[in-house]
Structures are given as C-alpha cells and as structure tokens.
## 1
Amino acid sequence: MISSPERDNIIHVAIIDDDAEIRTGLQWMIEHSDGFVCTGSYPRCDEALAVIENDPPDVVLMDIGMPGKSGIECVGALKERFPDIQVLMLTVYSDDEKIFQSLRAGAVGYLLKKTPSEKLLDAIRDAFAGGAPMSSEVAQKVLSYFRPPKPSKLLASLSDREIEVLEALKEGHSYKAIAEKLFVSVHTVRFHLHNIYAKLHVSSRSEAVAKALNGR
C-alpha cells in the first residue's frame, strides 16, 4: 500500500459481507465517522479479490458465512496477496472452531455483529494500530484455550513424584517399569501408590487411573 501524509491520517476500510443491509449500514457508519473512509463494499470474496488491489484498504471487515469462498478462506487469500491488510472478522458465529480457524488463517481480531458502533470503530482503530481486538466473550474463549486447566482438588493433593507415578500408571507401565523409569525401587513405587490410593480415595490401580483420566 502507498503511504502518504494524507492517507496516514485516515483509515481505509473495506467490507466483505453477503448481507446487503449490513453492508449498507457498515458503509454509512464508516463514511460518517471522522478518520475513516470506505474503499469498497463487496458481497463475495471473489468479487473483492478481483478489484481490491486498485485501492487496498488498511482494514477489512470480514463476514464468515458467504457464498463461494467462506470468510475464513478469504482471509487466507487476502493475506497471501496483501500481507499488510489487517482483517477483522465481523460475524454472528461465536463457536470455538470458527474463532480459531479465523485467527489461524491470519485475522487479527474477531468481533460479533452485535458489537455497538462505537466499539466497532475503536476495534478498527486498534487493528490498524497493530492490536488484536475481540469481543469480550471471544477473548474469554481465547484466554481459556491458552490457560492451563485447573487440576481437580483430589489430583492437586498429590506430590510431584506421586503425579509422575500416576502418569506412568496411565501409560500402562508395570511397577518394575515405573521403578526403572523414575530410578527408584519397586518398594518406593508401592509406597507412592499407597499414598495415591489414600488421597484419591480408591483401592485399586484401575480406579486411580480412572480418576486421573476423568480429572475428578
């Protein structure tokens, strides 16, 4: 994209969405907001790709469910040809699969269509500045994905060595194999197992493994 002092003061935005009413509303919002201009409004990905290079936008608002190429496929196609364009998903879908597929394809942010206009404009500014704007419920899902799961209260009561023994049990190792793996005696393995059974309130190897697998 060509940079100029005049252009640097305005964020150029394109819209790709098959819903004509939504496109019209977004275009009106952008054109009537200071610091923004709409470079194009397209109902299909292929149509946008055919002409978008004539006036490449800074930010693209991208729907997901469209005829032909989906919005997720369109993200990849856009980023391949125009790596400097920031793509911001704007969709009704909030399921994990579509969120992560979009981000993996190259989208920098993910907003739901119920996002208020002012927040949407802030998100466009954020994306233009290099941020990763997301609706609150989407951000929570992303954080939850990367946050390690909390261990259950029962499993949290085990020592690090007991966890190692239990993991070896889950892998199907014999007491002798566990002893060799952990460089301890079989007697020590049995001692740890006794403590594991007591802490997990079980009486057998299979029950201990079942609780470990179920996280209870």
## 2
Amino acid sequence: MPQILFLDDTLLVICKPPGLLSQPGRRPEKWDSVITRLKPLYPDAVVVHRLDEPTSGLMILARGQAMSSGLSKAFRERRINKRYVAIVNGVMTNDEGSIDFPLIADWPNRPRQKIDFATGKPSLTHYRVLERNAAQNWTRVDLEPYTGRSHQLRLHLMALGHPILGDPLYADPQTYVRAPRMTLHAAHLDLDHPLTGEKLSFDSPVPF
C-alpha cells in the first residue's frame, strides 16, 4: 500500500513505491496500481498527475471530480511545484542548466517518447548538480520540470548524454544494469491547499 502522508476531505498526498503503476493498464497483469489499491479505502480518490511505473515518490490524488478539476488546473497553471532527484550516468560538467527539447509520442514504439523539433510539444527541465562521483562515474541531480510531458525527465537527461541509471526505456544496456531500479524519485512537492489556501509542503527521503 502506498504510504499516505496527508489526508483530508479534498486530497491525499502519498509516496508511491517503485514498480507500481499510477493507474491500471489495459492488460490484466497491469491492473495493480496506486488508484486500485486506494479506491477500496477512498472511493472518491482521483489521480490528477502520474508517476511512471519505475519512478518512486510524492503524488497527489484528489477527493472527487470537482477537486480533481481544480488540482488539474493548478498543475496546468504551475501553481503546484515538483522537484525530483536522479542519479545519472557520467559526470556532468555544468553545475546547473536547462534542457529545452520538444517531445512527442513515438507512436510505433509506444510508450516511448521522442524529441521532435518539428511537431513536438515545448518541454523544459531545469537541473542542478547535487553530487559528482568521478570514481564511479555518476552524478546526482535535482530536477525541476517546468512542463509535465510524459517521460520528460528521462528523455531530457538521455538527450543530454546522461541517462538515468536503471532506466528500462531510455538507458543504454550498460547504464540500465548499473542500478537495481530506476534512480528517479519525486522528492519535493508544494502547493496551496485548494480550499483553505494553507501552504502545504512535502519532502520524501531519496531512497538511493
């Protein structure tokens, strides 16, 4: 069961474990998910943003459709702030920067996304180096997605030449086997409570 960090009549904030879908897939073996586990306890729970199956960390769920619409609007208007931590292959040169590559679904190879400068949707990620390990050839980075495209962080880092360790879709085989799981964690989340306006801030310890 996902760990519940905050609960009231309007929303839930949970910590999703790696290897669990946010929502069920089409095939029976993909039925297990955050929402199918929480629905028996909170029948009005609605997913308003997703984490990829191999990603762990903080997620918000709304209580009811009206609240879902309000939280979805807050995400679109960037009034909900999210930050992630990842360990990537190689030693990054710059201490911080931005990755601005437009993304679109790679339909013949779904669920993969791809960079497409002609038809891709604008996608922007800010990054900041937290730690470099030259001996083991990896870098720990703080990531702030300005947009929220599917697989944005994973694809942006791969395109920069620093794929995430353990990424089953975008890492090369040597980088994929360097970690027992994908080293991407949704570590911070803050928002104004949709009813009271109270500032809510959550941090989840990075498990790698």
## 3
Amino acid sequence: MKTVYSPRHALQDAQIEFIRGKSVPSFEMPQRAELVLERIKAVALGPVVEPGSFGLEPLLAVHDPDFVEFLSTIWETWSAESGQIDAFPNAWPPPRSRRIRTKRPGAELGRYCIDMSSPIMAGTWTAVTSAADAALTATEIAAGPERMAFALCRPPGHHAGRDYFGGYCFINNAAVAAQNLVDRGARRVAVLDVDYHHGNGTQDIFYERADVLVASIHADPETEYPYYSGYADETGDGPGEGFNLNVPLAWGSAYGEYKPALDTALARIAAHGTEALVVSLGVDTFDGDPISRFKLQNADFLSMGRAIASLGVPTVFVMEGGYAVADIGVNTVNVLTGFEDVIGS
C-alpha cells in the first residue's frame, strides 16, 4: 500500500491548547505523523510518495468560499495586528446574534472556530493544504489499479465543517477525498469514521446528500467532544435522509462492544451500494490514549482493518486522531496491514 506524506505538516506545531480549564502542551503534535511514518518504513508497508498540488477547487467543493478565504488570509491580518503569536478567538457570536463580517481578526476567528484547540499560525495554511493534497493524491491512487492508499494527513480534518474549524481540524481531508471520488464518477461513496470522536464536520458537509453515506462510530456525545452532534437520531435531512449513521458508544467500550458497532456500520455501507470508501482513520480508540476513554488493544486494530477490507471496494485511508504517541504507529499500521492481509489473500 502506498502512503502519501508531506513534511510540510510540521508547519502546524501548536505548543499549547486549552482543555478542562487549563493550558497544556498540545496533544496534536508533528511527532504523531512522524511516528506513523517511522512504523510504515519499519514494516515495509509500501512506497512513501509526496502529494501533488491540486489548488483550491477541491476545497471549495466541500467548504464555503468565505471560509476558505478566511483560512488562507487570517494569519496575515492577525499577525499585522497582534504580532507573531498564535491566533485564537477572543469572542464567539452568541445565539441569535448576527454572524456578520467584522474588521477585527480575533472576532473573525470566533465566527469560524468552534473551540480553543486549534490555533492559527504562520504555517497553518501550508500545512492544511498539503494535507488536503495528500488526501487527493491518495484518492487518485486508490481510484486506479492499486485500489487502496493511505493519506498520512496532518493536521487531521473530520471536525472541520462547511464553514467552521476546530478539534485540531481546518480542512476536512476525508470530505475532500470523498467528493473527489464522486467527481471521478463514483455514484455512491461512503465515509467510515472510526475515530473516537464524532466526525461532526464530515456529517455537516454531507448531511443533505444521498450520494455520500457517512457512518461514524464514536464516543457518546452526551459525555464526549464534540457534544453537539453525533447522536443516533441524526440520520440526514432532505435528500440525505437515511444516509447518515451514528453509532455512539459508552465510555469504557472495548472491542467486544466496538466490533458489533463496526459490523453495523459496514453492513449499512454495503447496503448503500458503495463503490468507493474513505476511512477517517483515528486510532484514539486505543486504551492508552490520553484524551479518550475506549479500551481497544493493539491487536484489535488488525481486526478492524480486516473487517473493513471485507467490503471489497477501492479504499482511501485518511489519518485523523490518535494521541498515545508511543503506540500510534503500531495501531495505525495494524489497521493498514490487517486490510492488506485480506485484500492480498
């Protein structure tokens, strides 16, 4: 399996984040991607290739133009006013307020940002566009004879919606990949999100569409980020009714609880008539993850990869979360090698 990777991811290097009332070292760090890459090379998973350059059009296919313009320009306006310090919102629009453009970058950040985990810095735009390019390059590979590829994206993307960012995510790489598969002629595409946290951004982008099914297995949002979406009764709207599946699980869930949820999601994806699959591959379901509360073990990720392979469709894996850095490489590559075990047999 080919891996698509760009060292430009390291330009997004937040030193701190705010969590549970404290300023702490950021859990989303460049080391995450570097350790996955190290493991890929150690097991000789396959060639590692640089992404191509695809421009803005694929981003605009899933994100609002004003939002893309904001992401591409906010560092310039923020740094002109505040200097070379990380950009965080200083206000959020309350309910029933006017979400109109202002002249202050801190307020503009509040119009588009959903939390305090995702600072904008000088290299953010370069890092996030290289991640999207990695997803698009992997899609090109998987749409061809090889039928599978891994986009080692960083920053991750599944919390980025049509017109908002947060949860370490700026551009929704999985959504960009799924839309690209549609643009290439796939009539029915599915996104399977196995990250511990609900892919609220991916749901937002495709919620009113019947051509892209979104299936997510995640911690119950009553008790876990992103809190305001990911409930089982969210099934799509308008033409998208019935094309969104959420399977929330309780804190402490191990693979014994996770596997039936995965089987449910895979059965729904198969029933969709899926012609191509995008997997939002978060491995923060691991027992040792510092910000998550599931109990999956290293070997469970092999089983997950084998189960996903049973669909037998072209598959793009897109890296999302996973913050137990000592095990992130093993767990990520276990999914990929488990998938290859079935595809190659």
